[in-house]
Structures are given as C-alpha cells and as structure tokens.
Amino acid sequence: xxxxxFFGIEYIQSTSQSNENRKDEGxxxxxxxxxxxxxxxxxxxxxxxxxxSGTEFMDAAFFPExxxxxxxxxxxxxxxxxxxxxxxxxxxxxxxxYCRQNRIxxxxxxxxxxxxxxxxxxxxxxxxxxxxxxxxxxDERVPSGLESIRSxxxxxxxxxxxxxVDALCERVVYNDGEIFAIxxxxxxxxxxxxxxxxxxxxxxxxxxxxxxxPKCERLHPVLSLEKAYSGITLFTTFILAIKVYCISFSNxxxxxxxxxxxxxxxxxIKTECIVRGAxxxxxxxxxxxxxxxxxxxxxxxxxxRKDDARGMGxxxxxxxxxxxxxxxxxxxxxxxxxxxxLRAHLALSGTPLIGDGVYGGKKGAPMRYPSQILSSLSLTRxxxxxxxxxxxxxxxxxxSIISTKPGISIIAPLPPHFTLLLKKLSLLKKMK
Length: 432
What we know:
- The protein is α+β, with helices and mostly antiparallel strands.
- 29% of the residues lie in helices and 25% in strands.
- The protein contains 14 helices and 16 strands.
- Strand 13 (315-323) and strand 14 form a beta hairpin.
C-alpha cells in the first residue's frame, strides 16, 4: 500500500520507465490502486484538495501517528524563538551543553489548547568566561608604561590659562626682586611657534609677575628653555622708580650683565638626563664645534670639520651618575649653551637622549631601544616611539656680580615623571 512505500521508491520507478513498458506499469499501478480501501482513497483526495506542502503531505501519508498526536494536543504555534514543526523539537533540538558562542541560549515552544497551555523549554549552557581578578578595586587595571609616565607628568594639556598661572606661581624657585626663576614643566613652550592660539611661558610669566611682583613693569628673559625640556628659566626684573624731578631705572643693566657673563663662561648650568647606553668614562668633555641646519622649520646641529668657519664652538662636560650598558643617568655641565647643543653632543658621544626623535635614530629613523629598557618600562616597539625626552635643567650657579650682591645657586627638583623612570630603570641615586 502507499503506507509501505516510505521513500516513494515504487512511484519513482514507475515514472522513470521507458515508454515501451508504460502499459505494463500502468496496469500494475491500477491493480495496486484497486487495493486501497474507500476510506484511504477519500483521505488521499482530501489531502490533495487542501494543497498541502511536500512535508505536510509526507507527514500525513506516511506518519499518521503524528497527525493523531497533533489532533490530541492542539495546533502547534511558534514561540519567541521556537518553531512550529514538532520534528524540529524532537530530532533537531540543541543538546545540553552545546553552545558555539560560549553563552546561555534558550529555545521555547508553546503548545496551546482551549483550556490548557504547555511550555517546552530547552536550555543549553556553557561555562562562562573567567573574569579577570584584580588586586585592587573593581575597575582597577594595570596601566601601561606610557600611561604611568603620562600620569606623573605635569598636565599642561588639561589646563586653561588661569590654572596654568596658579600652578606657575607655585613653581617659582627664586625671586629676590631682581632675579626671577620659574621651574618650567615639560610640554610648555617658551615662546614663538606656528600655533598662535597655544599658551606660552613668556606670556604666562607676565601674569605670574603681576601677582608676585606688582611693582615690576616687565620681565627680561635671560635663559630660555625648549618645549620638551623641564627646569629653570631665568628672568630679570625691570622696575621703574619715580623720585622728585628725576627718574631712575633699577636693574637696567642686570640682564645684559648676566648674558655677558654667560658668554665668558662664568655661569654654570647643570642638566640631568637619561640616555641610552653608557658613557665611555665616568667623566669627560665633548668639545665638538657644531653647524646649524634648518629644514622645514626644524633645527638640527651637525658636527663641523676643523677647517669649517661655520662651526660654533661648544663644550659639554659629562658625568655619569649611575647606569649600565643599556641606559644611564648622567649630569651635563655647561658654561654657555646654544639650542640643541646637549642633544647633539650626546648623540655624537654614542649615548643619545631617551625620547629624542631627531638625534636618537640613524638617518631620521626612530630610536631603537634595547629589550632591557622595553621590558623595564612595559613598552612595545611602537609605544617606545612616543616616549618623551627626559632632560631637566636642575641647577644654575651665578657668581657675585657686585660686592653688595653675593653669588647665588638656583635649584629645581627633578619632576615626578623623571623620578619614575629612574625607579623603573633602577637608576635612582641620591646626588652627593
């Protein structure tokens, strides 16, 4: 009968026969059709009239128990994430513990009748991912090397003009009414530059002077500092004193006097740096004349030949404080300085300044650091190209200018980000 032909083999064979055997096959089919009972013929005709799909026809023709079960429990309806086919529930459902994306998933089918409601729920679970354990608070995470250095740096980029003026008032390291010194933070430009909207130290110093020296007319710069440097910047004051029928100018010649003494090497400047590599000896001098070159607005100094008249004479004393073959903490001593002198001399001696992108690499390439430095600072090769320069003007010694004014020594302590790097590189040592 039709119920025995599960896969329709007899039907397929009957349609695939050649035209010569169709009469015999047709008679055989007729004989088989005659074997259907009247109820079976009526049922098949009803199925054809309903225009069932192929799946529904196969279910009704060969799996009558499904239809009987369907009539008992009512019509199956699709749930939120379910299916209307009972065969998907019984044969194609997800097994317990199977979850491709490591998350909990549910499938729900609803079976409804007039007076009852039945819910079938399937749930597959996978062990959730382990959450990272933190030693501190819930949101605590270990910062990267760059983030830790940036967190200890003076936040110039976050401050407005009034906040910077308040901060610089606290960073005045010397003020006797005639000589005025400010400890400039790293990242604050001294003057000039293409970005006219940015804040500069020369303009901010005037506002600091108004608060601390209201009688001072203006400040005269004596010793400036590059943006990437930190440390002492030196000014002299200009005070206008009005007396009866005469005008006297105080400190009119002090600025020129200091500049002249600096040219003659009478003022000592000490600068601390962290360099790559180790100096060849604990103490030595670099006496290499330098030639200034300007390309696309960027200054760079090169070593000049002995017979080159363009060479500018410059001398830098180097003292090793502590270090090894990978990195060192050094102190530089100069009597007079030109722009980029320290950076160029350090590069010529084979110990370039850490973070120096101009003089540190070869032929304009970024500086490459030993693996010892990268591991100590928790940095990758790409992150190391964003390291700032660690150079700080720590001390200026001015001898006695006149008999009534004794010599002075101005000191600016090392900034926190500089000290942090010394600790990470195991270079921290107290100065004698």
